[in-house]
Specification:
The complex is a heterodimer of chains A (about 100) and B (about 400). By secondary structure, chain A is of the alpha+beta class. Chain A contains four helices and four strands. The N and C termini of chain B lie far apart (about 65 Å). In chain B, strand 14, helix 13 and strand 15 form a beta-alpha-beta unit. With about 400 residues, chain B is of the alpha/beta class. The chains are: A alpha+beta (about 100), B alpha/beta (about 400). Chains A and B meet through loops of A and helix 9 of B. The complex binds iron/sulfur cluster (2 copies).
């Protein structure tokens, strides 16, 4: 995410574009990230109900992934999943593996 | 455009300082006034509510339940694009504390009169500047008045300063409680039309009510943009160093009364000087006149604008003085002298101006200070200038350890 300089931003933190929170990354401070075991998931959507940041991505009533731009890594989804389908993994490790793969 | 300003003649009246502020508010005719009464500011709100009841202002007057609510109302009104004003002092200003930062951080040009008084305890409501000086880091422009006239004139100019596109910051106008606020003084009130023309109609750049250009005020600012926004705010406040004298010049062409950041009195050839803010500059002038009559070269620098801090103007004015005393009517407990003193020391140091300089705290909680006591400060300074002992650097004006029997 490119950070703008102080002369390029709106005074007083005013927001003039609608829906800018979609593109704004709030997940940068996550220390661990949820990973879903698709084999175990029954798409009960409890994780979607409980996620405080709306970061469980659902399409056609099915969980299809995690919005890592906004997931803060709180682990609530992993805690609530009745199927223990979500595991929290170390963020740094996950990033290294992403980089390697 | 500014060349065509014609000087106008006002009406000379005798008013209490609070009523002078209320008259200025009536003439400005703000969109919203939200205030809670507190001594010694009460008469401003009382008088203004009379104007409201009589229908002589178009203002939406909101009698709120606290000062926190008063300033919060102004924040909401200002974000909605209204010209919003309030007045408070002492404990009321302290109760606004949280919202002071919201007003400046959102870049809302709210104007507030502060009728300066002490903060308890011990319980006290009398004149000093502890209330306003303590808010110096809140990001507001701060002007202080010496007289009734200045108190009235400052409020009118504050509207233009706050709303200037290069500033866009709330502005406080300080005036001594009781000494000015409750005492009768002579001043010239401008004609209503002249004030309305001077402050003209406020056109906000952004407004919550502008549905063609919708905008969000007060969104969460994360670690990435909070600091840059503060940097912008700092720039706005610094711009006021240019804007305040510009507005003061324009106001001068209208009224014959010109205003800058600081005002020297008998300073050009003065060997020693007092730097002071607010109403006690009057007693200092009397002391200067007495000593000048004896041929002693003493002078004064009155600081009208404390935020932004006019470091260049102060350093330039003080350069060449042999010894200077900075008088603060507030206490920065445990600090290296009082706030104005420490900032002046830093301004001089950063400009390689070496000078003997001492700090006085004076007049807390209405403690009376008479011209003879300022004469004594000058006598002390003259001794220091001639090589006398400078210690203690931080002093308490005319405060004996034991009473005389
Ligand atoms: S709570 Fe567990 S089982 Fe239910 S949808 Fe989420 S991951 Fe799947
Ligand atoms: S870790 Fe927290 S923020 Fe991330 S998807 Fe799970 S519940 Fe939502």
């Amino acid at each position: 995410m490119k950070i703008k300089g102080w002369k390029e931003i709106m005074p007083g933190g005013l927001v003039t574009e609608p829906g800018s929170s979609v593109t704004y990354e709030t997940g940068t401070w996550r220390s661990s990230r949820p990973t879903i075991d698709k084999e175990r998931c029954t798409h009960c959507l409890l994780c979607w109900v409980f996620c405080p940041d709306g970061s469980i991505v659902v399409r056609d009533s099915k969980v299809v992934g995690i919005d890592l731009k906004h997931c803060k890594g709180c682990g609530i989804c992993a805690n609530e999943c009745p199927r223990h389908a979500i595991t929290m993994v170390d963020e740094i490790k996950a990033r290294v593996e992403e980089g390697l793969s | 455009m500014s060349n065509v300003i014609q000087q106008v003649k006002g009406k000379v009246v005798a008013l209490e300082g609070d009523y002078a502020i209320a008259e200025a508010l009536r003439q400005i005719n703000p969109d919203v006034m939200a205030a809670y009464p507190i001594t010694p500011q009460t008469e401003i709100v009382q008088k203004f509510s009379e104007f409201y009841a009589e229908g002589v202002v178009d203002t939406e007057f909101v009698p709120v339940e606290s000062e926190h609510a008063a300033l919060s109302t102004c924040v909401g009104a200002s974000a909605a694009g209204a010209r919003a004003m309030t007045a408070t002092c002492g404990a009321g200003l302290a109760l606004m504390w949280e919202i002071l930062w919201c007003a400046s951080g959102l870049r809302l040009p709210i104007v507030m009169a502060v009728v300066n008084r002490s903060l308890s305890a011990p319980l006290n409501i009398l004149t000093d500047q502890t209330d306003e000086m303590a808010t110096r880091d809140a990001g507001w422009v701060q002007l202080y008045a010496e007289s009734h006239q200045e108190a009235y004139d400052n409020i009118i100019q504050a509207v233009r300063i706050a709303e200037h596109p290069d500033v866009m910051l709330p502005t406080m106008c300080g005036m001594a409680g009781f000494v000015l606020g409750h005492a009768l003084g002579q001043l010239e009130l401008l004609p209503d039309e002249a004030v309305r023309k001077f402050v003209h109609i406020y056109h906000p750049h952004y407004s919550l009510l502008d549905t063609d250009c919708p905008v969000t005020f007060g969104a969460f600012d994360h670690w990435d943009y909070f600091f840059p926004h503060k940097r912008q705010q700092w720039e706005g406040l610094n711009n006021a160093l240019r804007v305040i004298p510009e507005i003061g010049e324009e106001f001068g062409r209208l009224t014959g009364r010109y205003y800058g950041l600081v005002e020297p009195y008998m300073l050009d050839d003065a060997e020693v000087a007092i730097v002071i803010i607010g109403s006690a500059a009057g007693a200092t002038r009397v002391a200067i006149d007495e000593m000048r009559a004896e041929g002693i070269k003493v002078g004064m620098l009155k600081v009208r604008c404390y935020r932004p801090f006019p470091a260049d103007a102060i350093a330039e004015a003080l350069q060449g003085r042999k010894a200077v005393a900075v008088l603060d009517r507030t206490s920065c407990m445990g600090g290296e002298g009082s706030p104005l003193f420490t900032e002046i020391c830093s301004a001089l140091y950063n400009r390689n101006i070496a000078m003997k300089i001492i700090s006085y705290t004076y007049g807390l909680g209405g403690y009376d200070t008479i011209p003879e006591e300022f004469c004594q400060v000058y006598r002390n300074l003259l001794q220091i200038a001639q090589g006398g002992k400078i210690e203690p650097i931080h002093r308490f004006l005319s405060l004996p350890e034991r009473g005389e029997s």
